[in-house]
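Class, discuss our next protein.
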Amino acid sequence: MPLCTSLTLYLLSLVFLGETRGDSGFAPLDGAPPSKIAVVGAGIGGTATAHFLRQHFGPEVRIDVFERKAVGGRLATVTVNQQDYESGGSIIHSLNLHMQDFVKQLGLKYRKSVAGKTAVFNGKEFILEETDWYLLDLFRLWWRYGISFIRLQMWVEEIMEKFMRIYKYQAHGYAFSSVEELLHSLGGTGFLNMTHRSLSESLLELGVSQRFIDEVIAPIMRVNYGQNISIPAFVGAVSLAGAQANLWAVEGGNKLVCSGLLKLAKANFIQAQVTTISLHLKGESHQYELSYTTQTDKVSDFYDIVVIATPLQQNVNSGISFQGFEPQLPDIAGFYHQTVASIVHGYMNCSYFGFPDPKLFPFASVLTTDTPGLFFNSAASACPVNITAGFRRKQPQEAGVYKVFSPKPLEKNELKTLFKSYYSVQVTDWQAYPHYGSTQELPPVTLHDSLYYLNGIEWAGSAMEMSSVAAKNIALLAYHRWNRQLEMIDQKDLMHKIKTEL
């Protein structure tokens, strides 16, 4: 999921989801509900899945959530001078309806926003600068790029309008057995084609200029996904969906949503490494045995339904092996992209950006173009997760806290390039989101009859809301398959059906 800085220029984020192989894996013939469900992973996807499973399967089923590290996954904070700062997923879009609903149900608060201007740096100079005057910014965009930004905005708005249908589908209880089925239900073959065409190719065909792509689109892709404009158009559209929209975060840290959802779901949290998932046949039905290790013991237990909400790609090293499946489960292709978040407490070297006097440096966020030799993707003044009424952002001449995204850990000489001096550097090396290719296949949602994989959605686009929508989809899919309600899965022409129902 994008580990984004807070921007105000054109920006970022959000939304969406959902392969099944056969019609087995349903409830026993006596119609008994499942007794135990396991969710592996306690990030936003896993905890949201536990919440939605509780909603659909009711209060009697036991839900166990396994996590080898801390609750929150890629939503995490680090502490500097007794203040916490987001080191993982930072920004939530105003149209993220599931995330908004979570915050409301949990009684959490929206974090106060702190204004700050953004600029784009090409390694030598700033080529695009935000000012205090919105109309001046619009004039500069038009003067430099013509109507490219208008064409882009219309394209993104059209995609978002279709995407927002997912909330209606889910509100009416419809589920999808694959990411492809979901995308097709929202945008037909157009959406599916966007997962195989590059963003740059699609935008050029749209009439967006190469200059606009290089100077505006590429910096947004770098700060959101640490990658370039060759990523699929669908991922790029997800990343651009928040252009000129309200962005927000949770007071106290976005990870509070995860811990809150666990409590709301009345789930049993088990801090352990799941090592093996084995298939065990019981007459005409079957169960899954999860073997796991805690700090003190090796344990195993049986479950009717299992949801894996952690990446299974080889370079992530989930530590999970599968046994007893015939045929063997397919390997999940692809690998996750490395991005490094460095939280630096120190003095920004404004001279590097052409401002010898730091008092004259006006920018809170610096994005970068895809220029050879540029060692960082973005650098931004960071605000703590708790913002008091009298809080003000540190001025560049003062020691402040900055978040720097880079493709690899910063070397000492690189830190000295960006900062005149610094007191501390805290590094989080994330396998943050998929490494996107233009021809990759989307991973399956159903690995076996009642064994589901949530993180396949990230290969269409990675964001907190994407995981939340995938969680709702899997809960619905598992419920309908268990109860043989096939009419609620992969239905065609859903917009017409919903209008008819109304």
User: Anything to note?
Assistant: The two ends are 35 Å apart (CA to CA). The chain is about 30% helix and 25% strand. The first strand starts at residue 36 and ends at 40. Confidence is low (pLDDT under 50) at residues 4-24.
